[in-house]
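ligand=uracil
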Amino acid sequence: MGIPAHGEYLQAMGIQQWVSRDRPPADAFEVQATEEGGATDGAAVLQPTAIDVSMLDWAALEARVSACERCALHATRQRTVFGSGDRSADWLIIGEAPGADEDLQGEPFVGRAGMLLTAMLQAVGYRRDQVYITNILKCRPPRNRDPLADEVSCCRAYLERQIELVNPRLILAVGRIAAHNLLGTETAIGKLRGTVHHYGKDRIPLVVVYHPAYLLRSPLEKRKAWEDLKLARQAAAGG
Ligand code: URA
């Protein structure tokens, strides 16, 4: 028996395949290009770090992460999840933290939510291997609880260096935790989405999208995610 086509796999997973369209679905929500809710622009920078990995190349950085014991998560992880994809990609996708599947496989977004993320990227014309995907945390929090502030700050330098090395045209912040930590705000994700923010001194365009795990639970929100992906495509193209 051959390997199932990607579409068949998604169908088998109960995930509707995303198809790129030039026009939004008739009942799509409008994107509000708004500053409402204190959306940050230009001010978003991760905090300074206690370790200096700013000179490390990819190989050295990955080795540092895989040996990392800076926070308690190292004791419960199976594997670190550094990141995957094209290290010179235009799009840098940043999620929250590895889940059970990622912890076992050592790759980000490989579980059910990852399948949906892959389909979302395909809808805007990208294969997984054409973007770079990583997370705020490189180790799985037990029972998939939210990352703690000290865990995020221990991992921050690694992410900052990854952002520098990829030097993307666009950052897609996937979910509330990624959005809050990258933008340095606690504004509700519903107010952060739909707007192009900017990250760091290079003002890299940053778009917030709902987490695919949330979209699996709330499929009606996929229309908003579709709008955000189109906004991201436009921002990456410089528009
Ligand atoms: N959720 C995330 O935010 N990241 C992963 O890698 C997997 C699930």
